[in-house]
Design the sequence.
């Protein structure tokens, strides 16, 4: 049975609201419950069996950030904004994704892939529950391997980019790749390790991982291609 996620849209602009409604209605895993022009119209609806909110930042009276702060048990949120500078602040709020206008069909589908992956995890439907433990500041954190999108060199540390968060770990790239299953992860650049299951497409110079462009170094192309077919 196909997963069906109930969602609402809060967007002040009629033009942008129509665009997002069309994207939602054309996606087989989404069901639009309601579309609103401001946050005051929503009331308690977001707490009533809603899986996802598409939320514009620039709203009248109560903006998107203030609205999120006003709710308890916030469902997953995809923020929508016309300014890319909002992106950093958006992820500080723990949103699932941030879409900058104009929204392309491909970028929209990448965002929904993240929502579906998180939902399946919560429902206990993830096939791969392999995990490792990493040191994050003063804590030890359990990381599900299938949630790792890519690993990035980060000075004296590495950054694990997961489906819904980023984790900074004290390690070298060379040491960390040894902890990962070779059939699922490959180093494609001195600064990047990717999860092969997250690859969307690639060319001679880059690999797209869930909508993000990762550089592919010349001396690692053969290793990458071999890993893909094995």
Sequence:
């Amino acid at each position: 049975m196909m997963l069906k996620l109930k969602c609402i849209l809060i967007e002040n602009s009629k033009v942008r609201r129509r665009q997002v409604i069309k994207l939602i209605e054309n996606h087989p895993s989404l069901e639009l419950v309601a579309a609103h022009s401001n946050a005051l119209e929503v009331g308690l609806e977001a707490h009533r069996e809603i899986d996802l909110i598409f939320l514009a930042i620039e709203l009248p009276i109560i903006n998107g950030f203030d609205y999120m702060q006003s709710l308890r048990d916030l469902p997953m949120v995809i923020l929508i904004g016309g300014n890319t500078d909002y992106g950093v602040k958006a992820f500080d709020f723990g949103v699932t994704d941030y879409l900058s206008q104009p929204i392309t069909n491909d970028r929209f589908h990448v965002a929904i892939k993240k929502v579906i992956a998180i939902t399946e995890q919560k429902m206990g439907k993830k096939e791969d529950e392999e995990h490792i433990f990493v040191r994050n500041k003063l804590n030890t954190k359990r990381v599900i391997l299938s949630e790792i999108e890519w690993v990035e060199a980060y000075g004296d540390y590495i950054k694990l980019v997961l489906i819904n968060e980023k984790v900074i770990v004290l390690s070298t790239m060379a040491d960390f790749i040894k902890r990962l299953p070779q059939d699922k992860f490959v180093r494609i650049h001195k600064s990047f390790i990717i999860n092969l299951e997250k690859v969307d497409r690639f060319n001679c110079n880059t690999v797209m991982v869930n909508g993000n462009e990762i550089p592919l170094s010349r001396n690692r192309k053969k290793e990458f291609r071999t890993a893909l077919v094995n």
